[in-house]
Structure formats: structure tokens, C-alpha cells
Amino acid sequence: MSTPEYTLYELVSREDNKESQTGHSPYVNKTKADLAILGVPYKSVPLTFIGVRNNLASDTKNDVVTVPTLQLSSGEYITDSFKIAEYLQKHHATEDKSLFPSPDSHASIRFLDFWIDGDLVIAIRELFRPLFWTNLDKASADYFLEFKYGNDQALLDDHLATLGSVEKLNKKAEVAREKLKTLDRLLAEAPNGGPFILGTKPSHADASLWGWYAASQVNAPVINELLWEHPSLPNVAKWVAAAKEATGIKFNFPPAKITPK
Ligand SMILES: N[C@@H](CCC(=O)N[C@@H](CS)C(=O)NCC(=O)O)C(=O)O
């Protein structure tokens, strides 16, 4: 077999078990979905937060580097999931497989990507993100607490407590479903009946949503029932089934360490 042209630097939760826990980075998940949609093979390099800040920053000579970062066979690095999507589109799109199916779609997909990473995520992330912290090794957990929670342990504890309370989860889920209704409406009007955001074929719009869907599977039993497969969001549930098939990506999160009561 020939060596893949690309190396994808991705996030893992533990230095001591790099194979077992990918999927926590929504942005890496987006790129993996893009690569799957286009059928592009790649080699994966798993890094913890500390590895990103030390090794990848040094290799790329970029102190603010993030993952996903894609390295080309020329040695050049591309950082940022949207920039990677644009690059992949330019080099691998065909008539049949495309991340931006028409020149017009670029602006609307960019808008959707901003809406997902901004508005939607604020409404849904508390239903799963704190669990990420429970899976990290000590150095990564300290980093996460400092940079994602401003070292506010009380706030993190409060968010962890929400994950342990059916009542609190239900309240958060209600707000989250309100936000997802926008998406459900969009999917209800998708060209040619969907099931993807832009119609019958997956695009970067779907990869962008997939990134967060996939990350949220760290709390799968809770979030699927309350959100992704909730009866009030039938088109979202239909999208989930189609996106799973289109990406073929499976999850390997450990069982959730918090059970709601
Ligand atoms: N806009 C970027 C965001 C990438 C990003 O924030 N990645 C996180 C992982 S989810 C990261 O690399 N964090 C490293 C750090 O916080 O030091 C993209 O779309 O790729």
C-alpha cells in the first residue's frame, strides 16, 4: 500500500493511552468527516494538549497552533478546520464528492460554521463537555481547567454536578433543543428532501455539525435521548443516521463516569 499523502495531527485525552480516546476535539472531528466524505486517506498523529503546545508548536514554528493541523507531503502545515476544508476541496473534490458543492455554497457554509461554533455550541456543550475533563490525564486536565475554565474549579464542579442531575439536565436540554430547532427547520427544507444540509450529498456543512455531534458522544446515552434523537427534532435525528453512514466514523469513548439521578 502506498503511504498516505497527509498527516493529521489530532487531540487525544491521555498520554498513556493514545490509541483509545480520540474524538474529543470537535474541530478535528470536522476534518475527519471532510476526509471521509472525499475518501482521502491519511496518517494520524495523536497529541495531548501538552503535545500540541510543545511538540506541534515547535515543529510548525507556530506558538498558537491548534488541532486539526494537516501536514502535506511537501512538509507544509495547514492549521484550522475551515482552511483545511478549503484546501481539500481544491485538491480532492470531484463531480460526485464535494465539500462546497457550488461556488455559492461557500458563504452559506461559512455562516453555518460560525453559527455552529458560536451560537449552537454555547447552548449544547454543557451537556457533554465537562465529561471530557474526567477522561484527561493529570497534565491535560490541569491545562483544560486553566484554559477552558479560567482555573475556576467551582464552575467546573457546578457543570459536573449538572451532568449528575436529571432535573438540571432536562432544563439545559430544553434550551438546547430550542436552538437545534433552527437546524431542524433548515433540514426540513433541505434541497431534494435531504437528508443532508445541502441535499442528497454530504458537504462541509454536515462535517461542521458532525464535529460537535461526534464530540458530544462522550455522553451518548444522555445527549442522544435529550437532543439528537429527541422526538421534537425528527429531521435532526434523520440527519444523524445519514451522517453516521456517510462518515463511517465510530467512537471509542470510555463509559461516562457520571450517571444522572
Ligand atoms: N478554529 C479552529 C479551532 C481549533 C481548536 O480550537 N482546537 C483545539 C482543540 S478542540 C486546540 O487545538 N486547542 C489547543 C489548546 O487549547 O492549546 C479550527 O476550526 O480548527
TrEMBL record:
Going by the entry's taxonomy, the superkingdom of the source organism is recorded as: Eukaryota
Domain GST C-terminal stretches: 102-261
Transmembrane stretches in the record are none
* Family annotation (Pfam families): GST_C_2, GST_N_2
PANTHER family xref list: GLUTATHIONE S-TRANSFERASE OMEGA, PTHR43968
Coiled-coil stretches noted in the UniProt entry, renumbered to this chain: none
Species for this entry: Apiotrichum porosum
Q: Name one GO cellular component term.
A: cytoplasm
Quote the protein name from its UniProt record: GST C-terminal domain-containing protein
InterPro entries assigned to the protein according to its UniProt record, in alphabetical order: Glutathione-S-Trfase_C-like, Glutathione-S-Trfase_C_sf, Glutathione_S-Trfase_N, GST_Omega/HSP26, Thioredoxin-like_sf
